Amino acid sequence: MGAAWMESPFERRSIQHAMKVRDQDGKVLGKVACIGQTVLFVRRRFSRQLWAVPLSHVERVTGQGVYVSGREHAAVEPVGDRLRTEIITAVHPLAEPARTHA
């Protein structure tokens, strides 16, 4: 993610549960089920199966959803045992607010 992205008032500052996950072409891959330390867990529509998307593949986050690098199946990975080993949360902040010392 570039520095210009972090300065934009139009970009979201966090990834949240139930946001749509889109590939680089804008195709919906699913929705965020939960967020780990290193991956997003994505559930596809009408499926119980979870998929993993590494947080390093996140290109940008907008009001339209989370955009990741890669196309369709190349953008997601099998979960494996990550669900048991990751610390799970519902919100992942992308930037901390600047602190000023008084």
Describe, in plain words, how this protein is organized in 3D:
With about 100 residues, the protein is mainly β. Helix content is about 10%, strand content about 35%. The chain is built from two helices and nine strands, in the order αββββββββαβ. The strands form two sheets. Strands 6-7-2-3-4-5-8 form a seven-stranded mixed sheet, with no helix packed on it. A two-stranded antiparallel sheet has the order 1-9. A hairpin with a 5-residue loop joins β2 (about 20) and β3. The model has no long low-confidence stretch (mean pLDDT about 85).
Distance separating the two termini: 30 Å
Q: Give helix and strand order, one letter per element, not per position.
A: HEEEEEEEEHE
Counted beta strands: 9
Average pLDDT metric: 83
Assign the structural class, choosing from mainly alpha, mainly beta, alpha/beta, alpha+beta, or little secondary structure.
mainly beta
Please summarize what this structure is:
By secondary structure, this protein is mainly beta. The protein is built from 2 helices and 9 strands, in the order αββββββββαβ.
